[in-house]
Amino acid sequence: METVSQYKNIVPIFKKELRSYFNSAVAYVVIVVFLGIVGWFHSNSLFLNNVASLRLMFDIVPMVFLFIIPAITMRLLSEEKKSGTIELLVTKPLSDTEIVLGKFLAAWALVGITLVPTLVYYITVASLGNIDHGPVLGGYFGLLLMAGVFIAIGLFASSLTENQVVAFIIGLGMVLAFFMFDKILPFVPAWLTTTVEFLGVDYHKTNIERGVIDSRDILYFLSLLGLMLYLTILSLERRKW
Questions:
Q1: pTM
Q2: Where in the sequence is the domain holding 139, given as residue range(s)?
Protein backbone atom coordinates (compact mmCIF):
# COMPACT_ATOMS: atom_id res chain seq x y z
CA MET A 1 0.00 0.00 0.00
CA GLU A 2 2.86 2.37 0.81
CA THR A 3 4.42 1.81 -2.60
CA VAL A 4 1.12 2.53 -4.35
CA SER A 5 0.60 5.73 -2.35
CA GLN A 6 4.08 6.93 -3.31
CA TYR A 7 2.99 7.05 -6.97
CA LYS A 8 -0.58 8.28 -6.52
CA ASN A 9 0.23 11.59 -8.24
CA ILE A 10 1.19 9.99 -11.55
CA VAL A 11 -2.42 9.94 -12.79
CA PRO A 12 -3.12 13.66 -12.11
CA ILE A 13 0.15 14.62 -13.86
CA PHE A 14 -0.71 12.30 -16.75
CA LYS A 15 -4.17 13.86 -17.15
CA LYS A 16 -2.79 17.40 -16.90
CA GLU A 17 -0.10 16.80 -19.54
CA LEU A 18 -2.42 14.97 -21.94
CA ARG A 19 -5.00 17.72 -21.58
CA SER A 20 -2.34 20.35 -22.28
CA TYR A 21 -1.54 18.68 -25.61
CA PHE A 22 -5.16 18.98 -26.74
CA ASN A 23 -5.67 22.45 -25.22
CA SER A 24 -2.92 23.69 -27.53
CA ALA A 25 -2.30 22.99 -31.20
CA VAL A 26 0.37 20.37 -30.48
CA ALA A 27 -1.83 17.26 -30.55
CA TYR A 28 -3.77 18.33 -33.64
CA VAL A 29 -0.65 19.29 -35.60
CA VAL A 30 1.06 16.01 -34.68
CA ILE A 31 -1.96 13.92 -35.66
CA VAL A 32 -2.57 15.77 -38.95
CA VAL A 33 1.09 15.72 -40.01
CA PHE A 34 1.52 12.08 -39.02
CA LEU A 35 -1.61 10.88 -40.81
CA GLY A 36 -0.84 13.05 -43.83
CA ILE A 37 2.63 11.58 -44.36
CA VAL A 38 1.73 7.97 -43.54
CA GLY A 39 -1.55 8.15 -45.46
CA TRP A 40 0.16 9.50 -48.58
CA PHE A 41 2.70 6.66 -48.71
CA HIS A 42 0.09 4.03 -47.85
CA SER A 43 -2.31 5.30 -50.53
CA ASN A 44 0.45 5.27 -53.14
CA SER A 45 1.30 1.70 -52.22
CA LEU A 46 -2.33 0.60 -52.25
CA PHE A 47 -3.70 2.35 -55.34
CA LEU A 48 -0.74 3.26 -57.55
CA ASN A 49 1.42 0.21 -56.93
CA ASN A 50 -1.58 -2.08 -56.38
CA VAL A 51 -0.06 -3.60 -53.24
CA ALA A 52 -2.60 -4.53 -50.53
CA SER A 53 -0.21 -4.63 -47.60
CA LEU A 54 0.59 -2.69 -44.43
CA ARG A 55 4.32 -3.38 -44.66
CA LEU A 56 5.14 0.01 -46.17
CA MET A 57 3.18 1.74 -43.40
CA PHE A 58 5.15 -0.13 -40.73
CA ASP A 59 8.37 0.90 -42.51
CA ILE A 60 7.37 4.57 -42.83
CA VAL A 61 5.99 5.17 -39.31
CA PRO A 62 9.37 4.75 -37.51
CA MET A 63 10.92 7.40 -39.76
CA VAL A 64 8.06 9.78 -38.98
CA PHE A 65 8.53 8.98 -35.27
CA LEU A 66 12.14 10.19 -35.56
CA PHE A 67 10.88 13.75 -35.97
CA ILE A 68 7.48 14.00 -34.31
CA ILE A 69 8.44 12.31 -31.02
CA PRO A 70 11.34 14.68 -30.22
CA ALA A 71 8.92 17.50 -31.11
CA ILE A 72 6.34 16.11 -28.66
CA THR A 73 8.82 15.64 -25.82
CA MET A 74 11.10 18.67 -26.22
CA ARG A 75 8.95 20.92 -24.03
CA LEU A 76 8.00 18.44 -21.31
CA LEU A 77 10.82 19.29 -18.90
CA SER A 78 12.81 22.05 -20.62
CA GLU A 79 9.82 24.40 -20.57
CA GLU A 80 9.20 23.64 -16.89
CA LYS A 81 12.85 24.40 -16.09
CA LYS A 82 12.94 27.61 -18.11
CA SER A 83 9.73 28.99 -16.60
CA GLY A 84 10.65 27.85 -13.10
CA THR A 85 7.49 25.76 -12.70
CA ILE A 86 9.61 22.66 -12.12
CA GLU A 87 10.58 24.18 -8.76
CA LEU A 88 6.90 24.81 -7.97
CA LEU A 89 6.14 21.17 -8.78
CA VAL A 90 8.72 19.87 -6.33
CA THR A 91 7.38 22.08 -3.54
CA LYS A 92 4.22 20.01 -3.77
CA PRO A 93 4.13 16.43 -2.48
CA LEU A 94 5.44 15.15 -5.83
CA SER A 95 8.51 13.03 -6.41
CA ASP A 96 10.76 13.33 -9.45
CA THR A 97 9.70 9.81 -10.39
CA GLU A 98 6.03 10.80 -10.41
CA ILE A 99 6.76 13.85 -12.57
CA VAL A 100 8.78 11.85 -15.09
CA LEU A 101 6.36 8.91 -15.30
CA GLY A 102 3.29 11.15 -15.57
CA LYS A 103 4.79 13.14 -18.43
CA PHE A 104 6.12 10.01 -20.13
CA LEU A 105 2.74 8.26 -20.05
CA ALA A 106 0.96 11.36 -21.40
CA ALA A 107 3.31 11.56 -24.41
CA TRP A 108 3.00 7.79 -24.97
CA ALA A 109 -0.79 8.06 -24.86
CA LEU A 110 -0.70 10.86 -27.44
CA VAL A 111 1.32 8.66 -29.81
CA GLY A 112 -1.11 5.80 -29.21
CA ILE A 113 -4.05 8.09 -30.02
CA THR A 114 -2.22 9.17 -33.19
CA LEU A 115 -1.87 5.55 -34.29
CA VAL A 116 -5.56 4.71 -33.78
CA PRO A 117 -6.81 6.27 -37.08
CA THR A 118 -4.34 4.08 -39.02
CA LEU A 119 -6.57 1.13 -38.13
CA VAL A 120 -8.65 2.33 -41.08
CA TYR A 121 -5.78 1.19 -43.33
CA TYR A 122 -5.85 -2.19 -41.61
CA ILE A 123 -9.60 -2.55 -42.17
CA THR A 124 -9.25 -1.42 -45.82
CA VAL A 125 -6.49 -3.90 -46.62
CA ALA A 126 -8.32 -6.72 -44.80
CA SER A 127 -11.45 -6.02 -46.86
CA LEU A 128 -9.49 -6.23 -50.13
CA GLY A 129 -8.14 -9.70 -49.53
CA ASN A 130 -6.67 -12.18 -47.10
CA ILE A 131 -4.32 -10.66 -44.55
CA ASP A 132 -2.16 -12.31 -41.92
CA HIS A 133 -3.40 -10.68 -38.72
CA GLY A 134 -0.47 -11.86 -36.57
CA PRO A 135 2.20 -9.68 -38.22
CA VAL A 136 -0.19 -6.69 -38.26
CA LEU A 137 -0.85 -6.94 -34.52
CA GLY A 138 2.86 -7.54 -33.96
CA GLY A 139 3.61 -4.48 -36.09
CA TYR A 140 1.40 -2.22 -33.98
CA PHE A 141 2.83 -3.68 -30.78
CA GLY A 142 6.35 -3.07 -32.06
CA LEU A 143 5.51 0.52 -33.02
CA LEU A 144 4.15 1.22 -29.53
CA LEU A 145 7.29 -0.20 -27.90
CA MET A 146 9.50 1.80 -30.26
CA ALA A 147 7.49 4.94 -29.51
CA GLY A 148 7.91 4.31 -25.77
CA VAL A 149 11.69 4.11 -26.14
CA PHE A 150 11.83 7.23 -28.33
CA ILE A 151 9.65 9.14 -25.86
CA ALA A 152 11.87 8.11 -22.94
CA ILE A 153 14.92 9.29 -24.91
CA GLY A 154 13.20 12.58 -25.82
CA LEU A 155 12.20 13.12 -22.20
CA PHE A 156 15.80 12.59 -21.12
CA ALA A 157 16.96 15.12 -23.73
CA SER A 158 14.36 17.59 -22.43
CA SER A 159 15.73 17.20 -18.90
CA LEU A 160 19.22 18.26 -19.99
CA THR A 161 18.45 21.81 -21.08
CA GLU A 162 16.09 24.75 -20.68
CA ASN A 163 16.05 25.37 -24.44
CA GLN A 164 13.35 23.46 -26.34
CA VAL A 165 15.19 23.66 -29.67
CA VAL A 166 18.33 22.21 -28.10
CA ALA A 167 16.21 19.48 -26.48
CA PHE A 168 14.71 18.67 -29.88
CA ILE A 169 18.15 18.44 -31.54
CA ILE A 170 19.58 16.25 -28.75
CA GLY A 171 16.50 14.02 -28.81
CA LEU A 172 16.56 13.74 -32.59
CA GLY A 173 20.26 12.85 -32.58
CA MET A 174 19.80 10.14 -29.93
CA VAL A 175 16.74 8.46 -31.48
CA LEU A 176 18.40 8.60 -34.91
CA ALA A 177 21.48 6.88 -33.49
CA PHE A 178 19.46 4.00 -32.02
CA PHE A 179 17.43 3.76 -35.23
CA MET A 180 20.56 3.56 -37.40
CA PHE A 181 22.59 1.00 -35.40
CA ASP A 182 21.45 -2.01 -37.44
CA LYS A 183 21.84 -0.09 -40.71
CA ILE A 184 25.56 0.65 -40.41
CA LEU A 185 26.66 -3.00 -40.14
CA PRO A 186 28.67 -2.92 -43.42
CA PHE A 187 30.94 -0.32 -41.78
CA VAL A 188 31.35 -2.20 -38.49
CA PRO A 189 34.11 -4.76 -37.75
CA ALA A 190 32.82 -8.33 -38.04
CA TRP A 191 33.38 -9.06 -34.35
CA LEU A 192 31.12 -6.11 -33.41
CA THR A 193 28.23 -6.67 -35.83
CA THR A 194 26.11 -8.81 -33.50
CA THR A 195 26.38 -6.29 -30.66
CA VAL A 196 25.71 -3.26 -32.85
CA GLU A 197 22.76 -4.98 -34.52
CA PHE A 198 21.28 -5.83 -31.12
CA LEU A 199 21.42 -2.15 -30.14
CA GLY A 200 19.23 -1.15 -33.09
CA VAL A 201 15.65 -0.27 -32.18
CA ASP A 202 14.39 -1.01 -35.68
CA TYR A 203 15.98 -4.47 -35.61
CA HIS A 204 13.88 -5.50 -32.61
CA LYS A 205 10.76 -3.80 -33.96
CA THR A 206 11.13 -5.76 -37.19
CA ASN A 207 11.46 -9.01 -35.23
CA ILE A 208 8.19 -8.34 -33.37
CA GLU A 209 6.56 -7.26 -36.64
CA ARG A 210 6.93 -10.82 -37.93
CA GLY A 211 4.23 -11.82 -35.45
CA VAL A 212 6.51 -13.90 -33.22
CA ILE A 213 7.08 -12.34 -29.81
CA ASP A 214 10.60 -13.07 -28.55
CA SER A 215 11.39 -12.31 -24.91
CA ARG A 216 14.78 -10.88 -25.96
CA ASP A 217 13.08 -8.18 -28.03
CA ILE A 218 10.67 -7.29 -25.23
CA LEU A 219 13.53 -7.23 -22.72
CA TYR A 220 15.51 -4.91 -24.99
CA PHE A 221 12.68 -2.38 -25.26
CA LEU A 222 11.81 -2.46 -21.56
CA SER A 223 15.46 -2.24 -20.50
CA LEU A 224 16.25 0.72 -22.76
CA LEU A 225 13.01 2.45 -21.83
CA GLY A 226 13.66 1.94 -18.12
CA LEU A 227 17.28 3.10 -18.43
CA MET A 228 16.32 6.35 -20.16
CA LEU A 229 13.59 7.10 -17.61
CA TYR A 230 16.06 6.40 -14.79
CA LEU A 231 18.62 8.77 -16.36
CA THR A 232 15.88 11.40 -16.68
CA ILE A 233 15.08 11.12 -12.98
CA LEU A 234 18.80 11.41 -12.14
CA SER A 235 19.04 14.46 -14.40
CA LEU A 236 16.17 16.13 -12.54
CA GLU A 237 17.76 15.33 -9.20
CA ARG A 238 20.94 17.19 -10.21
CA ARG A 239 19.31 20.46 -9.21
CA LYS A 240 19.32 19.26 -5.58
CA TRP A 241 23.05 18.58 -5.54
A1: 0.90
A2: 2-240
